[in-house]
Amino acid sequence: MALSARNSTVIPLNGLSTFTGEYENVTKYGVLMISMTTDKAGLLYIDHSPDGVHNDISEEITINSDIDYTYSEYHKLRSRFVRIRFENTTVDTQTYLRLQTRYNVGIYNDSISTTMEDSAGNPIYSTDGALNVSLFGTDGEKNRQLLTSTNGALQIDVLTMPSISVSVDSVDIRNMNYASDSFAVYGKNGDTQHQLLTDGNGILSVNVESMPDINIRNLSNTNDGIAIYGTDGVTQHQILTA
What we know:
Elements: E1 2-3, E2 18-20, E3 24-25, E4 31-38, E5 42-49, E6 57-63, E7 69-76, E8 81-88, E9 97-104, E10 107-108, E11 111-112, E12 116-117, E13 123-124, E14 133-136, E15 143-146, E16 183-186, E17 193-196, E18 226-229, E19 236-239
Antiparallel strand pairs: 1-9, 2-8, 3-8, 4-7, 4-9, 5-6, 5-8, 10-11, 12-13, 14-15, 16-17, 18-19
């Protein structure tokens, strides 16, 4: 709790005299507590002001006592500035007076109350609208913005994504009519990616690395030549057909 020197006093008042404190900016607090001990009746005022000049709301508390009286209560702060006044309504001078005002984030009616300011310094009394909430980034120093839309939807950019893996026992690639794009597979070295391509009809383009033996004894329908290596294993020779 923060003690307010401007709105506290221990100086007894003469009859029909008034103690008037000073307006203080209490935006960062939520409640105030007034503790008072006196031996004369009077009126206690809590003045609430939006600008420290105009008094919009005054709470009046009657102190009915001509004997030792102790008053201690929490009060909700209702504006940006607050001031305390106490009037001795009797004609007699007080023997003693102890008026203490304290501010706190505090608890009022079993709930925590506080007041926030927007960027222009105006108090925020309702969070029904969208708010920009500042929070620390991953470096623990710089503030980042946590943004919401007018509907309260959060805008979130994920810093990292978990890896996703899919395991299958077998894949049937016979029907790839809808595979209009290509996908990468690893080559036999396990490192370099190669493309497994399909055309618009889903037909695979396959280049076979090795072929089984071919029986070329019947070449009556071969209109072209077949190139084979000669005995030296380097120079290609032609086997021609008519």
